[in-house]
Design a protein that fits this description.
This protein is α/β, with parallel strands linked by helices. The protein has eleven helices and 17 strands. 30% of the residues lie in helices and 30% in strands. Strand 5 and strand 6 form a beta hairpin. It is elongated and about 60 Å long.
Length: 348
């Protein structure tokens, strides 16, 4: 549970925030882990029809939706008029503005808006952001080093909201070569590590493969365009938006791509008997580097690969993946190093 979710539960427990009416239609926009708030929004697990949930990150979506027993919104703006909108945004300023705009567009007149974020992850700028949309703040609570900002939404600056929502749509990046969108990690550039990996992926890959943590599809497209003997490529990411954008950026190759929305640190839908896996695993969790994520990716790759299958991984030089590779793979070697990154090839 994130600090923001903890702050909410403590405010509900203390009575500083009132539990919503059991008939209220409630929307939750979650860019943080926050499944623990669900009991405060519903009478019990048999009364969850009033919830409208948006969460694109697989592990958080899985717990928030009670193991996908509750439906998740595919679009950011709810088609129904909500009584309450609850937002737990990510740290990225532009994405936070988009989530708030989506919630405002979804609320009925007089509806309640609650936005909560850690002070060092955008919480201290929430008042300014909301007032910039023409809202009057009712209350600001400080709890768990977070700000919980509450407002009654009678009206707002609709031109400002429309302008923000336009930025949420996928649009061209890198001279229009790819489509991407705000909210994805590194959404508007080619990652340095991925570019190095692309330089050193061989052009004789064949059979069944996977791009672990595909992002918007830069490496997936490179593989397909340079390896004509690839029969099927699984494009896998924990962010649903990334999987969808990869499909857009691989238009024309639908017959050989297989999109999978899943958490590769604890996969539910891991493909098997693969000939190759490529990956540029994330290495940040919260505020610091976390090699455990990449290690889990490596373990999943080992499970997915057939005997003699190949893994190609790019990572920062300081990340200690070699120990896991030694334990799991028959052999491995660094095949390139540049700009603080290393490319490793491992054989099962």
């Amino acid at each position: 549970m994130s600090d923001a979710a903890t702050a909410l539960t403590k405010l509900f427990d203390s009575g500083s925030l009132n539990a919503p009416d059991e008939n209220a239609l409630i929307g939750v926009w979650a860019a943080q882990p926050c499944a623990e708030i669900i009991p405060y929004l519903t009478k019990d697990r048999s009364h969850t029809d009033n919830l409208r949930l948006w969460c694109p990150f697989y592990p958080w979506a899985k717990t928030l939706s009670l193991d996908f027993t509750l439906p998740l919104m595919q679009e950011m703006v709810c088609a129904e008029a909500l009584d309450l909108a609850l937002i737990l945004p990510a740290k990225q300023k532009d994405e936070t503005a988009i989530l708030i705009a989506s919630a405002l567009q979804s609320l009925k007149k007089g509806g309640q808006l609650i936005v909560v974020a850690a002070n060092d992850a955008g919480g201290n700028r929430l008042r300014k952001t909301l007032e910039g949309f023409g809202l009057t703040i009712d209350t600001i609570h400080s709890k768990q080093k977070c700000k919980v900002v509450c407002a009654t939404v009678d009206d707002f600056d609709r031109d400002a909201i429309t302008a923000i929502l336009k930025t949420a749509a996928p649009h061209g990046i890198i001279d229009g070569q790819y489509k991407s969108q705000i909210g994805l990690y590194g959404w508007n550039k080619i990652d340095i590590g991925s570019a190095l990996l692309a330089e050193h992926i061989p052009d004789d890959l064949h059979g069944l493969g996977a791009d672990f943590g595909c992002g918007y599809g830069f490496l997936s497209r490179h593989i397909i365009e340079t390896n004509p003997k690839v029969k099927k490529l699984c494009i896998i990411d924990a962010d649903r938006r990334a999987v969808e954008l990869s499909q857009v950026n691989l238009t024309g190759h639908e017959s050989i791509t297989h999109p999978i929305w899943d958490d590769l640190t604890a996969p539910d839908k891991l493909p098997k008997n693969l000939d190759f896996v490529i990956m540029n695993p994330p290495f940040h969790s919260g505020k610091g580097a976390n090699s455990a994520i990449g290690i889990k990716f490596i373990e999943s790759a080992h499970q997915a690969l057939k005997r003699y299958g190949q893994l190609y991984i790019v990572a920062n030089n300081h990340l200690p993946y070699e120990r896991s590779l030694n334990e799991l793979f028959h052999k491995h070697e660094i095949i390139a190093q540049k700009n603080g990154f290393k490319v490793i090839c491992a054989g099962k």
